[in-house]
């Protein structure tokens, strides 16, 4: 499925002087997906380590945007800047922070991160659908907020040369979501990992930025 992209990544490594480093940062969803990834044939590096790609997973349960800001600030202070950073954030804040202000804070965060890491490609991972939200029982209202936030952040990211990952086929059903209505089932984790892997291969092989993966907007 990803053979052509893997070949391009390999060619890029041949003409590059340094390895490709990727940070993936998020909440317990990222933590659970990391555990699932380690059990796959390609492991937590999606078998891209043979091309010099090194993925560093960072995750904390209950991670809010404000907590992520602090953690990434520390990571930047003590680690070399990554080639790419995937940020999966926002779901826990929906319903607790006014949508307009949450959008403003996310855009501000991404802009500052871009300024601090000018050689790093930023990648936003869209908020997933849920059956249960922390701060509201009105699932329809929360999902509308989620869609609006995802859409506006996608526009901002691609407009400024960053990238965006979407999950258009993931639905708010127990096929994808665990009993708590928030975390993912095994199938949901596998689906999430397939999208992340495909996105990384497409973005790394393209190298131009401004990419949304997948790009089928008919399912937005």
TrEMBL record:
Q: Which positions make up the signal peptide?
A: 1-21
Spell out the InterPro entries in the cross-references.
SGNH_hydro_sf
What domain of life does the native source organism fall in? Eukaryota
Answer yes or no on keyword Signal. yes
UniProt entry keywords in alphabetical sequence: Signal
Question: Can you name this protein?
Answer: SGNH hydrolase-type esterase domain-containing protein
Organism whose genome encodes this protein: Mytilus coruscus (Sea mussel)
């Amino acid at each position: 499925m990803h053979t052509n992209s893997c070949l391009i990544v390999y060619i890029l490594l041949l003409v590059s002087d340094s390895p490709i480093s990727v940070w993936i940062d998020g909440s317990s969803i990222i933590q659970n997906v990391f555990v699932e990834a380690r059990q796959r044939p390609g492991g937590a590096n999606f078998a891209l380590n043979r091309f010099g790609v090194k993925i560093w997973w960072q995750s904390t349960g209950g991670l809010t945007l404000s907590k992520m800001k602090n953690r990434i600030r520390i990571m930047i202070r003590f680690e070399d800047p990554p080639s790419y950073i995937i940020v999966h954030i926002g779901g826990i804040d929906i319903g607790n922070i006014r949508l307009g202000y949450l959008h403003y804070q996310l855009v501000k965060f991404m802009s500052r991160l871009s300024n601090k890491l000018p050689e790093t490609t930023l990648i936003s991972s869209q908020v997933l659908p849920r059956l249960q939200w922390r701060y509201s029982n009105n699932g329809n209202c929360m999902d509308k907020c989620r869609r609006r936030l995802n859409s506006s952040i996608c526009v901002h990211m691609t407009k400024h040369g960053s990238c965006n990952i979407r999950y258009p086929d993931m639905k708010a059903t127990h096929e994808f979501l665990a009993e708590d209505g928030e975390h993912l089932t095994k199938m949901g984790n596998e689906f999430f990992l397939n999208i992340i892997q495909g996105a990384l291969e497409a973005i790394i092989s393209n190298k131009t930025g401004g990419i949304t993966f997948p790009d089928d907007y008919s399912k937005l």
